[in-house]
């Protein structure tokens, strides 16, 4: 009887540890949406050559288009003629294959910040299988929140 109670206690402890490890894979998203009074029509996406997430800009463009806004991809130098610019950072982590673990979006109008968003996979996803979801699955809700005032 005593061994049975010990085994149950050990199983409960193991289950608690596994649950804790899985919970470390939580996603943290923080968004300061763009106000509707910004009257955006076109957003210039400033290329960040340091980003190695191959479909990141395509996901940004599709997300912007979902909000009935135009976009164009420009260099840092060419962005000076744009009214609204979007700068970004995206980082990959690796666990059997690369996956998006962190991204920042900053939206500017005439050189002043008008909105930003951050996607952060806490603990690089831990044991969560969601860490391997695609860029669009992770970033679409972030982009939609950032541009929520535009439909």
UniProtKB/TrEMBL annotation:
<keyword id="KW-0732">Signal</keyword>
<feature type="signal peptide">
    <location>
        <begin position="1"/>
        <end position="23"/>
    </location>
</feature>
<protein>
    <recommendedName>
        <fullName>Lipoprotein</fullName>
    </recommendedName>
</protein>
